[in-house]
Specification:
β9, α8 and β10 form a beta-alpha-beta unit. The chain is α+β, with helices and mostly antiparallel strands and 211 residues long. Helix content is 31%, strand content 21%. The chain has one domain. The protein is globular.
């Protein structure tokens, strides 16, 4: 793959959805850490156990549980299901019962992950699915991202994941997307006195129920 497509792919945004109540622990650790126990877990216990039993052959970490998951779109299918309050095997009852506006999107780019020296894998769909293909080598990951972005107008991005091995340094998060001014103030208060100063943006479309 030539340098121009690769450079374009490095600018691909990635999105980690979490409840605002999980931010204090993330800030204390100064990282998103694979396998950490959140205050409010988006995933049910059985899905966490399942991810621990799914190996990533040849990957930089042994199982899905050893990766921090990111969506490749702010309209990822699982996030849309949570926004709609739908029953979904990958969503915990607590997450579905929570106010969607109390979630935040921690946004980075593939370039920031690379610059942090973190290893990553690209999954072409829901990482737990039996038919999911994983791109592990850098060239294969770039090729898969290019295909996901190109096929069907990028629709396949909605079910794909980027998985970062081990942890993601907090400094790699450049933007915190929030639903409204109230949550933005909550996040600002949490960050008060911290040297972590991402942009905090109110962007309601990311949080509205899908039509």
């Amino acid at each position: 793959m030539g340098s121009a497509p690769a450079d374009t792919l490095l600018e691909q945004r990635i999105y980690h959805v979490t409840h605002v109540s999980n931010l204090p622990a993330i800030l204390a650790a100064r990282a998103l850490i694979a396998g950490a126990t959140p205050t409010l877990d988006v995933s049910p216990d059985e899905v966490r156990l399942e991810r621990g039993e799914i190996p990533i052959a040849g990957g930089p970490a042994p199982s899905l549980a050893d990766y921090v998951p990111f969506f490749l779109s702010p309209d990822a299918q699982l996030w849309q299901a949570l926004r709609a309050g739908d029953e979904h095997p990958r969503l915990s009852a607590k997450a579905r019962a929570a106010d969607t506006y109390d979630f935040v999107l921690l946004v980075s780019t593939v370039k920031h992950i690379v610059n942090a020296g973190a290893a990553f894998v690209v999954a072409d769909r829901n990482a737990e699915a039996a038919t999911t293909r994983f791109a592990i080598a850098r060239e294969d990951a770039e090729r898969m991202l290019h295909r996901l972005r190109s096929d069907n107008g990028g629709e396949q991005l909605l079910d794909a994941e980027l998985l970062v091995a081990g942890q993601v340094p907090l400094e790699s998060v450049t933007l915190v997307g929030v639903a409204n001014d109230r949550v933005r103030q909550v996040v600002r208060d949490m960050l008060a006195g911290s040297d972590f100063t991402p942009k905090i943006s109110v962007y309601p479309p990311w949080f509205q129920q899908p039509e």
